[in-house]
Each structure stands twice: as structure tokens, then as C-alpha cells.
Amino acid sequence: MISIRRLARCNLLLVFTFAASGFCQQFDAKLFQEMHWRLIGPFRGGRGVAISGVPGQPNVFYMAPNNGGVWKTTDYGRTWNPIFDDQPTGSVGALAIAPSNPDIIYVGSGEGLRRPDLSTGDGIYKSTDGSRSWQHLGLRDGQQIAAILVDPHDPNRVLVAVLGHPYGPNPERGVFRSTDGGLTWQKVLYKDENTGAIDLAFDPSKPQIVYADMWASRRPPWTTSGAYNGPGGGLYKSTDGGTTWRQLTKGLPTWSEGLGRIGLRIAPNDSSRIYALVDSPKLGGLYRSDDAGESWQRINTDDRLWGRGDDFACVRVDPKNKDTVYVANISTYRSTDGGRSFTAIKGAPGGDDYHTIWINPDNPQIIALAVDQGVTISVNGGQTWSSWYNQPTAQFYHVITDNQFPYWVYGGQQESGSVGTASRSDFGEITFRDWYPVGVEEYGYVAPDPLNPNLIYGGKATKFNRITGQTQDISSTADVLACRPAHLISRVQRAVQDHRRRQQLANR
Fold first, then answer.
1. Residues 305 and 255 sit within 8 Å (Cβ to Cβ)
2. Considering all CA atoms of the chain, what is the largest pairwise distance in Å, rounded to the nearest integer?
3. Are 62 and 52 in contact (CB under 8 A)?
């Protein structure tokens, strides 16, 4: 799955490839020098898990759609600009701003999730000039970098959580540490070739105290449910900056009890208070420690908070109040009683899944969310939120064009259903007037009628009529069960073409 910006590059490459092979000759590059990329939307965000603000600059935020590079806003999310497009990967799962120097930015590539449709990366990147230029720092074979910690006093001391290959074993996984700004790396916490690191946390008062979650997991692309877990995972603590580690077990479930992913966060105003969101079919829930991780108590078992650990495990604590806790899942939840009860402050209806929460440490009223439908920001504690209809980071699984002139482009968009968008406009730009949903689910194929562009087929299978705005289910149970998704689009197209030919013959 790729973002629409990178999809355009792939499509043009295919055009050039087919042209060269079809005519068996080389073309002068000057013939294409007048061609320029045009953004055709849609202007609604795609899935992201990486988000960070800058404490001393409350208007500045960085975010990363999973396969759309890194973006920056300087106006509280009203406009977003891409700052990573020249790099060889667009898959990003983690980013961190150095607290002592906001011009230093670290970006970890790879989604850092366990999904059947994930994209992998090629290591870690760094900017020392506020995102104007980037340097690759290594860890190329880690493929999935899920978390980055930068020492609040030393921007050259960095720890990263490397999850590793999603479909097989590899040794470049675990917790890595650099003390020279990423020029060299030391593997400081490693279990085996199947166990990676998924989350990290500093003690805010003593950054030599570090916590890490190790997770042994797989998510093959042919699976239809969540990631499965293996032995080796658990919560670890270091008191010497990551040189030595010990596992924290008192009160926490074990692998034999179904332990999966753990998300953790330390209360900034009380480092003895730690919250852990634990994914486990038997003992899942929100756990709390009041003695710096030595013992734990499960204080909330509501499965709306911890379900689907392959996607969600974010817990955050208000910088000023250790009893105010936030959890991201299919909604964003807030507790004001130390995690014992929660209220949804943003979520369904809307079809959005919430992955990451960032809270401004100087002003906890400023909250940013990285969501399946983009990034949204609040400056009033969650009462109102910025729009995600200003981020052209839509993720598409499949695309197709019709035979109109100018032609339209169709596809299923992650989390937002589907879209048909004009390839050009008479008004100088593609706007909201130039795209609309076409009745197909987010993973679905689309097949426009070759003779009637107002009829759009696709999904499992459906027919959308642009004139009436109605979507009709035209499938039978047997068709759905027998037809593999990869064959659906050609099957629908053939059926439509045969039907139209018969109509033409009957009218002669």
C-alpha cells in the first residue's frame, strides 16, 4: 500500500517501461522535459503512526503517514508540507525531535506495526538543519523502527527500538544505542532473531533509566486476524543508560498466559508512576506501577483500550497530572482517575483508528493524534480539532482509470472507503468538487464501466451509479466465495464489456 504521491511516480515509471518495450526503441529524454507532476488528491489523510510537536514552538509539528514520507506544519496543522520526498523510502514509523535542539530530527523508517499490508523501511535518518537536508545513519536491515528516544540533554545520545523483519527471523533487531549522533550503533538489548523492540521510555528526571518492550511477533500477509506472538517478549528496565537490562515481571502476564505487545509511559511529574497497556487474550488491560516498575497492578480490563495489539498500544500521561491518562485505540480515551475509568474524547463515528498521541510537555492542552485518517491537533484539551482534509496522504491499494476525457482515477482508500478523482480540472486545481466516493470498501478493486463512466463496479461486488448516488450489491454468495480478489476486477470488466456488446448488437 502506498500514498498517492508515490503512486504517481510508480505509474509514470510503468508508462515509460511499457512504451520502451512496446516500440523497442529509446526515446530522447527531452521529449518528456515539459512533463510535471500534478497533485490530484484526494485531500484527506492516510494512516500514520508517527507524530511529534516541538515544546518551545507550539505551532510546529512533524508527522509521517506510513508510506508518505515526513510532513511539517508551522501553523497548528492548517497546512502541511512534505519534507522527506527526496529520500529513498517513504515508509516511516517513528520520529523524534531532540529536546535540547529542535533542529535535530531523527526519523525511523518502516511502519513499526504488524499488519498484512505493512511497508518496510531501510533504517534511520537524521536532519541537523530543521529538515532541509537528511543523512542516512544505518540500521538498514532492521526494516521496522518503532520508537526513538533522544536524551533531553544530549542530542547525540539516542536509543531506538528495532522491530525487525515482519515475516521472518533476522539478527538486526532489539534496542540499539548511539552516543555519537547515530554515526555508530551498539546493540544493547537483544534476545534472539525472532524478538524485536517495539517501545521505549525514559525516566523524565533521570534519563539514564530506560524502559523497553520486547515483542516476538509475526504477521504473514495471508492472515486474516491479528499478529501472533512468540516467547521472548516482555518489559525490561536499565538503570545505566541501556548498558545492562533486567526484565520486570511482578504482576505482569507471561508469554504462556498470552503476553503480546506492551505500550508504556512514565508520568512526567512522578517517575515512580508508570502505565503499561498490555495485549493479552487472558490478562490484557491497563497496568499501573507506583514503584518505578518493580510491581504492577491491572487497574482496567476494558478491551476497548487494549484490543488489537498489532495496531494499537499507545498510552500517554498528562505532563502535569499523573492521574490523567490517554489511550489510543478505535477511539482516543481519557482517564482522570489514574486509569480506573475512561471516556472517549474523539472517535467513532468516523471510521478512524488512533495510533499515537503526543502531548505538549509545557502545555497539556495541546494534543496531537496520528490516526488512520491523517493527523489532527487540538489546542484546547480535545474540545475541538484541526481538519485532516488538508493532507494529500491517502493510501491506495489499487488504482484504475476510466475512458473519459479527461480521464478519472479510482481506488479504494485506507480507512476512508473509496474515491474517484478527476485527472485535471477547468479551474486550475483539483478541489473538493472534483472527487467523490464510489461505493467500494477500502481494500476493494474498482472497475469503471468502459462505455458508461457513470457506472462504477468493484468491491465484493457492487455497482455505483454516479447519477443517482446509489450503490447496489450485485454479488451472489457463491460469487463472493469463489472469486479471489485479484481476479474480481477483470471478471467484472469482462461481464460489463460482454453486456455492452450485446446491447450494441441488439440496437443495430
1. no
2. 85
3. yes
Strand 408-413's sheet: what is its strand order?
A: 2-3, 395-401, 408-413, 417-422, 435-436
Q: How many helices (H) and strands (E) does the chain have?
A: 4, 37
How many Å apart are CA 313 and CA 300, to the nearest integer?
14
Cell of 184: 555508530
Query: If you search the block for the grid coordinates 512468540, which residue do you land on?
Result: 230
Angstrom distance (rounded) from CA 162 to CA 198: 7
Nearest to 171 by CA among 191, 186, 188, 149: 191
Q: Is the peptide bond before 42 cis (omega within 30 degrees of 0)?
A: yes
Domain extent for 399: 395-507
Residue at 494 is within a domain: yes
Calpha distance 63→15 (Å, rounded): 31
In angstroms, the CA 111 to CA 146 distance is 7
Show the cell assigned to 212. 523497553
* Amino acid in the structure at residue 282: K
Split into its structural domains, the chain has a count of 1
- The answer to whether residue 129 is domain-embedded is no
Cell 460489463 belongs to residue: 496
Q: Which amino acid is at 278?
A: V
| 426 class by beta-carbon count within 10 Å (0-12 exposed, 13-18 middle, 19+ buried) | exposed
* Tens of pLDDT, residue by residue, the chain (508 residues): 545 454 444 443 333 333 444 445 678 888 888 888 888 888 888 888 899 999 999 999 999 988 889 999 999 999 999 999 999 999 999 999 999 999 999 999 998 888 777 889 999 999 999 999 999 999 999 999 999 999 999 999 999 999 999 888 999 999 999 999 999 999 999 999 999 999 999 999 899 999 999 999 887 777 766 667 778 899 999 999 999 999 999 999 988 888 889 999 999 999 999 999 999 988 999 999 999 999 999 999 998 888 787 888 999 999 999 999 999 998 999 999 999 999 999 986 555 789 999 999 999 999 999 998 889 999 999 999 999 899 988 888 889 999 999 899 999 988 788 999 999 988 888 888 888 899 898 888 999 999 998 999 988 788 889 889 888 888 764 444 344 444 445 555 555 555 555 556 666 6
Residue 5 belongs to what H/E stretch? helix 4-23
Q: Can you tell me the distance from the alpha carbon of 76 to that of 363, in angstroms, rounded to the nearest whole number?
A: 14
- Residue 456 included in any domain: yes
User: Cis link prior to 349 (omega < 30° from 0)?
Assistant: yes
Residue 455 lies in a domain: yes
Residue 69 in grid coordinates? 514520507
- The CA-atom distances, in angstroms, between 333 and each of 295, 330, 486 are 25, 9, 38
Q: In degrees to the nearest 10, what's the CA dihedral of 136, 138, 142, 145?
A: -50
